[in-house]
Design brief:
Blueprint (H helix, E strand, L loop, with lengths): L3 H12 L6 H13 L5 H9 L7 H13 L6 E2 L5 E2 L1
Antiparallel strand pairs: 1-2
Helix pairs in contact: 2-3, 2-4, 3-4
Length: 84
């Protein structure tokens, strides 16, 4: 069963003519369950512990899609690192 965030991402992707993939769903799941701001690198490291088939570029591109879909917001903190 899909949760609200997954449904929102799926609707956004469909509206853009893009496909919902297992990798995108997994990245969203880990991002939401983290419950804190994450950089692309931090999210990648969390995902890599359970899903070695997802690369850094996929995580980064998916974070950009999550931002466009309204599920994440890009923030630059005092340390200069961009987090979502």
């Amino acid at each position: 069963m899909k949760n609200k965030a997954t449904e929102q991402l799926s609707a956004y992707l469909a509206g853009q003519g893009l496909k919902s993939t297992r990798q995108r769903d997994r990245i969203l799941e880990v991002f939401v369950s983290a419950g804190r701001h994450l950089s692309a690198e931090e999210l990648y490291l969390l995902i890599k512990t359970t899903d070695r088939g997802i690369g850094y570029a996929t995580v980064y591109r998916t974070l950009k899609l999550l931002t466009l879909a309204g599920l994440a917001h890009e923030r630059r903190f005092e340390d200069g690192v961009t987090r979502f």
